[in-house]
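User: Hey, my collaborator sent me this sequence without any context and asked if I could get a structure. I don't really work with proteins. Can you help?
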Amino acid sequence: MNNNPESSRDEIESHHRNITFHIAIFASGAGSNAEKIIQHFKSSEFQVALIVTNNPRAGVVQIAQKQQIPVLHLYRKKFFEDGYVEEFKDYKIDFIVLAGFLWMIPQQLIDQYRNKIINIHPALLPKYGGKGMYGNYVHEKVILGKELESGITIHYVDEHYDHGDIIFQATCPVFKDDTAETLASRIHQLEHHHYPRIIEELLIRLKGKAASTDTA
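Assistant: No problem. I've predicted the 3D structure and written it out in structure-token form, which is a compact way to encode the shape of the chain:
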């Protein structure tokens, strides 16, 4: 038994420094946000441990292979039956990031990861959200709505599309001659700049809570 309080404190602090949080990124498309997040957490205590997709032809699959990250391909029936909860436990997933994932998250997965699933939406919620509002569909609606600005919303995921508590928003102008593509390019810049940073801030908070629980 170690009766040295200083030694015990050092061991606890070392344990807290070495806690690794495993991130799963869900994506259905090209994976540009996923790639930025992977790069951000290279050599970090927060590790992208799994790429999850419902589209075997998605560009994010090639990114995962290049980075030697396992890929979990989802089947709709199983996903909405059990949420793949046991598989995520096997991969020791602590936190889920949606990065262009188009399916609604099933209740089982939300319950298992309550306040540990986040999404990024390419508009300023609560406007221009909901089922079918993704990618250029969103930007087209923003332009048709004659909005002067658009942006990104990072939010927790709950039982409804684009509905959970807002964590962070950033804005950009909408110009009179914008197309969905030109607006999308500015939105992508906001996504790539802010999403990895906000994820890291949330994980640091989770790590602090985990450390407090360990010492309670």
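In plain terms: Helices lie at 5-17, 32-40, 59-66, 76-82, 85-90, 107-112, 136-144, 180-215. You can pass these tokens on to your collaborator as they are.
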